[in-house]
Amino acid sequence: MAKPSDCCSTHLIDGDGTMDVAGLEKFMKEVKLSECGLSYAIVSIMGPQSSGLRPPKVFGWQDALDDTAFEKQSALFALAVSDIVLINMWCHDIGREHAANKPLLKTVFQVMTRLFSPRKTTMIFVIRDKTRTPLENLEPVLREDIQKIWDSVPKPEAHKETPLSAFFNIDVVALSSYEEKEEQFKEQVANLRKRFQQSIAPGGLAGDRQGVVPASGFCFSAEQIWKVIKENRDLDLPAHKVMVATVRCEEIAAEKHAAFARNKDWYELEDAVQSQLVPDFGNKTSLLLDTCFTGYDDEAAFFEEGVRNSKRKQLKEKLLQLVEPAYQLTLQHMRSDTLEKFIKSFEDALNKGQGFQVASHDCTISAMKSFDEKCKGAIIKQADWDSSKIRAKVSQDIDSHISDVRNAKLSDLTALYESNLKMALHGPVEALLEGAAADTWPAIRKLLRNETKTALSKFSKALAGFEMDENAKENLLSRLEGYAIDVVEGKAKEEAGKVLHSMKERFTTIFNHDNDLMPRTWTGKEDIRAINKTARTSALKLLSVLAAIRLEDYADKIETILIQALADPTNVPDKNSNSQNPLATSKWEKIPDTKTLITPVQCKSLWNQFQKETEYAVTQAITAQKANRQNSSWLPPPWAILALFVLGFDEFMTLLRNPLYVLFIFVGFLLMKALWVQLGIATEFQNG
Fold first, then answer.
1. Residues 206 and 233 sit within 8 Å (Cβ to Cβ)
2. How far apart are CA 81 and CA 218, in angstroms?
3. pLDDT per position as a tens digit, 4-46
4. InterPro entries this protein is in (predicted)?
5. What b/e readout covers 519-528, taking b as 16+ CB neighbours within 10 angstroms?
6. Which DSSP string do the residues of 547-589 spell out, in sequence order?
């Protein structure tokens, strides 16, 4: 027998029907009932007034109230929470019609039928103050009485044909009179107590019990059961079991969720993820979640399975919601880290001379493989999150960077070949345009064709190292070809813009220099008219060359038209003539407008201005030629010499008579000769 110091008791329900929940919680805490899981049993004791004995387990129950309603409520409560019910009865009441225990049994059976799906309860009838009649004779009579009471009790329609054995396991024990046979009584009580020690084991008193509420939820379960009974509602034990499991599992889940959120390891892990990639994040988080779920499973192990699993699922969802931001941040770190390493490795490969296509392919495979390995370390085994979207973004990042680098490389490569083409075309085209010969544009076309062909061939080979489709390649080649044309056309437009200046320079060069490019000296023998015509015709050819862009052979007659209209005045139509002036138009025949640089009307205007600005040079030449002719003869005419001799005879004779005068005249002659030579007066006369 347990010592009084080892026992703990509480008054569960007082006289007015109020349950002492705080007292029950204190009782459970002191006996550590919450730690028992399903390894506990609830025993109730009922019986007539003063028939009770100390309960052998957990807590005792004795109903001695006369109030019928409270009696039924108490009986229903006892049946609802108990695994074993002890019913005390007097031996002399067995077989009696008006036995003291019959109202109690009727109450028990009536309330039992109110349970929609009752738990099977072990009911032990304890025969008190057994007489000499053997138990073997008493038990059949008692069982018969019990069956009669069961048959007589009104039952719901669902249980009218339900046998007693569906609700109760009936057992009968007998105790001798404590007053007459104390030692035998104590021995019998001790034997009865032993039967409770393994009561929930298979074959024990409550070995086939069902729907047991886990010990941690017993207080809440008992409170809710009593609440339903007090409100006089039928009690559905399976529903109640689900309700208890729901509440307790929610409480356990909330505790585990809060504990996880406060966990120091999780806090440090979550904090670290904010700023950097945490190695093995997935395994660390999975371990913390495992610990949390294990704790939940241990505490909720004995509650209704469906509810337990449902609340575990909800706990899992909440924990994963808590963890997911850190997981997504980890993936973002991995994305950034992968792209950063790819950029470096790709740049290094290109700097080492590796081909663009090979470098991009190898570095991409390496980067994605590294990302996949990192993803394995970030996987949280409790979650079925798919990292394919972030992987696709990483792939897009890499492809975008490759595209940017490719475009930059292609831009640099294109700029290089454009620069080379410009150098190859710019100078020669300028020289050809300045030369303005009959074969200027055929020569330019040949130059353009050869240089473009060479550049396109080299450029095409250079593009072979880039991973690009044929259309893109053709576009780049076409752009380079177009650029070459633009260089030539641009130079032609530039020269056309300064055509008047170029014409004057050409005229001046031809007019003022001989065939050996030596400055002309107008000695009087030159044919200024012919030289002027040649110089103007050359300037007019320059104008005809720059009048239009001829990268295609248009078979135009611009030069002929300009020479006939401007260089040969005799061909200018008379005002009264019906023939049209070929320059009185804004278009050249056979030349597209887009290729026209100087229109016919503009050519006439430029020619008129050119003539005005070069006319002075021709006039100067004519003047110089006349002066040179005059200075070519140093002696005066014969008649002047004769007149000088006749008129100066006396003076001549005077000089002969006075030699001193001759000396003075000779000295003066020497001085004048020195000044003549020093000042180059003869040369100035020759130049007019």
1. no
2. 9
3. 455 677 888 877 778 888 888 888 888 888 778 778 888 888 7
4. G_GB1_RHD3_dom (IPR030386), RHD3/Sey1 (IPR008803), Sey1/RHD3-like_3HB (IPR046758)
5. eeebebebeb
6. TB--SS-----HHHHHIIIII-GGGSPPTT-SSPPTTSSS--T
Whole-number Å distance between alpha carbons of 667 and 652 = 17
pLDDT of residue 435: 84
Residue with tokens 């040179």: 628
Higher per-residue confidence, 155 vs 366: 366
pTM: 0.55
Amino acid identity for residue 673 in this structure:
K
Quote the crossing angle between the two packed helices 21-31 and 218-230, to the nearest 10°: 160
Give tens-digit pLDDT for 659-668: 777 777 777 8
Rounded Cα gap, residues 609 and 605, in angstroms? 6
Tokens describing residue 378? 């970030």
What is the C-alpha separation between 166 and 304, in angstroms, rounded?
22
Residues 344, 338 contacting (CB under 8 angstroms): no
**196: amino acid identity, one letter:** F
* Interstrand relation of 168-174 and 43-46 (parallel, antiparallel or unpaired): unpaired
What are the pLDDT digits (tens) for 443-478?
A: 999 999 999 999 999 988 888 877 778 888 889 899
What is the spatial distance between Cα 466 and Cα 358, in angstroms, rounded to a whole number? 9
Percent helix, strand, coil in the chain (nearest 5)? 65, 5, 30
Contact 34, 28 (CB under 8 A): yes
Q: How many whole angstroms separate alpha carbon 634 and alpha carbon 15?
A: 168
What is the tens place of the pLDDT at every residue in 480-502? 999 999 999 999 999 888 888 98
Which H or E run contains 45? strand 43-46
Phi then psi for residue 208, to 5 deg, are -105, 25
Q: Please state the φ and ψ torsions of residue 59, each to the nearest 5 degrees.
A: -155, 155
> How does pLDDT run across 596-635, given as a tens digit for each residue?
888 988 889 888 998 888 888 888 888 877 777 666 555 5
Locate the DSSP E strands across 48-200. 84-90, 121-128, 168-174
Residue scoring higher pLDDT (116 or 422) = 422
Radius of gyration of the CA atoms of the chain, in A: 64
Residues 194, 565: Cα–Cα separation, whole Å? 143
